[in-house]
From TrEMBL:
Pfam family name, one: CBS
An example Gene Ontology molecular-function term: protein kinase binding
GO cellular component terms given for this protein: cytoplasm; nucleotide-activated protein kinase complex; nucleus
Assembly notes: AMPK is a heterotrimer of an alpha catalytic subunit (PRKAA1 or PRKAA2), a beta (PRKAB1 or PRKAB2) and a gamma non-catalytic subunits (PRKAG1, PRKAG2 or PRKAG3). Interacts with FNIP1 and FNIP2.
Lineage of the organism: Eukaryota, Metazoa, Chordata, Craniata, Vertebrata
Protein name according to UniProt: Protein kinase AMP-activated non-catalytic subunit gamma 2
Family label: Belongs to the 5'-AMP-activated protein kinase gamma subunit family.
Family annotation (CDD domains): CBS_euAMPK_gamma-like_repeat1 (cd04618), CBS_euAMPK_gamma-like_repeat2 (cd04641)
GO biological process: fatty acid biosynthetic process
Annotated keywords: CBS domain, Fatty acid biosynthesis, Fatty acid metabolism, Lipid biosynthesis, Lipid metabolism, Repeat
PROSITE patterns found in the cross-reference section: CBS
Residue ranges of every copy of the CBS domain listed in the record: 31-90, 112-172, 185-247, 259-318
Gene3D superfamilies listed in its UniProt record: CBS-domain
Originating species: Pavo cristatus (Indian peafowl)
Length: 323
């Protein structure tokens, strides 16, 4: 395995963008001041406004009765509420406006309730990657087993950034020089996509039904011209426009035109090393794999890359990991 289990998170004293060496063991710390937690008694709408105000994508949920964290509130919850209760621009989404988080969890989770997936500060990087991929989650709270405090949240993006920095100081595994076609990393069948004139509510329905986190936007010629991700949906809360989901994707994405630098793409002939460098530098969650005509071939995500870098070399393919 190119990354050996045993790199702990405990001794970190750095910001989320810094790496330090402690006894020659790289460690990464995501400070607790970056955390935003929500009480189950908070109104759903106010909770999502809190995510926007704090510039975060998720928050641990605190239950006073148990005096512990019991779950995570994410943008996926916001999408599920809109998907489930939106009727038309003329009908207010009562469940979003009035429900408390605990009510939403009781109604939505019911039989599908699962305990909060978390990890201790002493857990290895390998354990963190395994837990993220096995549980098909994007955020992993690091919780002190003694105090019960949430210390930081690990994400695919931050782990991969750390790995890239670490690997720059050591010989790279041979498979880093192989291209996507040789490695077969990513998804290349039944790729979901939308068009510029697709209504937002239809995009949200696809997110829920396909359980995916981004949709390439394809024009009439089949060319990839944009991408609509789950993260973009939080802007409906930021701009308080979630009562009209009949607007098009193009209209919804106008807010980001000032800083959006275009879809980050790659080809099947580019090496994994190039792919890792590009996705880390661009600070995105996936690359759209295209052909010479800029048409969709596939999607390669951070999860795909971490599987290839950490778990596969350890003899754990994705099927075994998930099962």
């Amino acid at each position: 395995c190119c990354i050996a289990p045993g790199f702990t998170w405990k001794a970190l004293q750095t910001s989320s963008r810094e790496i330090v060496l402690n006894s020659n063991r790289p460690t990464l710390c995501l400070p607790s001041k970056d955390l935003c937690s929500c009480s189950l008694s908070l109104q759903v709408k106010k909770a999502f406004f809190a995510l926007v105000a704090n510039g975060v994508r998720a928050a641990p949920l605190w239950e006073s009765k148990k005096q512990s964290f019991v779950g995570m509130l994410t943008i996926t919850d916001f999408i599920n509420i809109l998907h489930r209760y939106y009727k038309s621009p003329m009908v207010q989404i009562y469940e979003l406006e009035e429900h408390k988080i605990e009510t939403w969890r009781e109604l939505y989770l019911q039989e599908t309730f699962k305990p909060l997936v978390n990890i201790s500060p002493d857990a290895s990087l390998f354990d963190a990657v395994y837990s993220l991929i096995k549980n098909k989650i994007h955020r992993l709270p690091v919780i002190d087993p003694v105090s019960g405090n949430a210390l930081y949240i690990l994400t695919h993006k931050r782990i991969l950034k750390f790995l890239q920095l670490f690997m720059s100081e050591m010989p790279k595994p041979a498979f880093m020089k192989k291209n996507l076609d040789e490695l077969g990393i990513g998804t290349y069948h039944n790729i979901a996509f939308i068009h510029p004139d697709t209504p937002i509510i239809k995009a949200l329905n696809i997110f829920v039904e396909r359980r995916i986190s981004a949709l390439p936007v394809v024009d009439e010629s089949g060319k990839v011209v944009d991408i609509y991700s789950k993260f973009d949906v939080i802007n409906l809360a930021a701009e308080k426009t979630y009562n009209n989901l009949d607007i098009t994707v193009t209209q919804a994405l106008q807010h980001r035109s000032q800083y959006f630098e275009g879809v980050v793409k790659c080809s099947m002939l580019e090496t994994l090393e190039t792919i890792v460098d590009r996705i880390v530098k661009a600070e995105v969650h996936r690359l759209v794999v295209v052909n010479e005509a800029d048409s969709i071939v596939g999607i390669i995500s951070l999860s795909d890359i971490l599987q290839a870098l950490v778990l596969t070399p350890a003899g754990m393919d994705q099927e075994n990991c998930i099962d």
